[in-house]
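Appendix C reproduces, verbatim, an entry submitted by the partner laboratory led by Prof. M.T., so that reviewers can inspect both the input and the predicted structure.
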Amino acid sequence: MALRPSILTAGRRLNTAAVAAAVRRGDLAGAEEAFASTRVKTTATYNCLLAGYARAPGAGRFADARHLFDRIPHPDAVSYNTLLSCHFASGDVDGARRLFSEMPIRDVTSWNTMVSGLSKNGALEEAKAVFQGMPVRNAVSWNAMVAGLACSGDMAAAEEWFRHAPVKENAVLWTAMVSGYMDEGNVQKAMEFFEAMPVRNLVSWNAMVSGYVKNSRASDALRVFKAMVDNATVQPNASTVSSVLLGCSNLSAVEFGRQIHQLCMKLPLSRSATVGTSLVSMYCKCGNLDDACKLFDDMHRRDVVAWNAMISGYAQHGYGGKAIKLFGEMKDEGVRPDWITFLAVLTVSLISNPGSVQRPIRSPLPRPDRGRTAKSMACGPPSRSATLNRRWGAGARDTRFAAVPNPHLKP
């Protein structure tokens, strides 16, 4: 019996929805599986998987994106715009230029993608030229230019473009200015823009919290975080909480950090390895090794960053024997150490009791670090633990945080 067209259409939508759902979860393998099982694929089906490749971290999936795009029977504007984003994400600016010039159809998103991509890749003059040549502009167009100038450090030009933006009720536009001034170290100007914002969103609050921490004003970061948690219209996310935990570490404000821990226990992300590692790092830096150890032992998944946080905590507080023992357990579990791990173990050998290290460490460094001196290792890339202040999950409203002094900002 032949299936009615309405049933076939519903089936296509269902399969496309499965691909889209997997992409939203970050499950690219699941998206590929759902795509492969879809017998009749529409352009929307291809676009969903293409978006997954565009969002994949790093530049490793660009070849897959290009191969998929070439298989689309009838690519539309969304197809071209997504591939354009893939070019910029992989650092292929020349490829993006070629694709844009060859696109048979362009919409405002196509132009905005070019402006944003060129700005982020340092081609600001070219981005300005593309902006000036746009047949139609919207708020995203102005956001891209202001954000690009702010990221480049040219805050005078960024403010000039900000003043000319036709729509000011735009949190993204204001947040670009806040972030730019925080990056420049001009905290006063960042505060002025934040206070003057007609509307604030989560990213706006995050820019203030992380900016204060970055500029060594952790107490202000904790105070803004408290105001944010008390705000019924916005809840903290990954970036917020990890930034404020770093502020707690800088102040040794372990009680405030403990309250954040209690907040996290209410969230689905309480089982996240990233969340656990952030808390382990905070407890270690505040000297609460027992709490850190208990949390570390309870973690369901522990990557190299989690092991590094605990090993470094033991090493920095003089527990060389425990650090070396944990290093051995790390190897036994098949977790490959990185240069941060070996730097922590080297710290043990330099500052711990002479008897704490009984034998040389024979595990090889990862290949990129072979031949590097201890000095070059110390000057190497920052610990991944330092990047944890950009990785957290959704928060919840809580008013139990203790008051933090220093009332420079009106929440």
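Residues 273-392 form one domain. Additional entries are available on request from the coordinating office.
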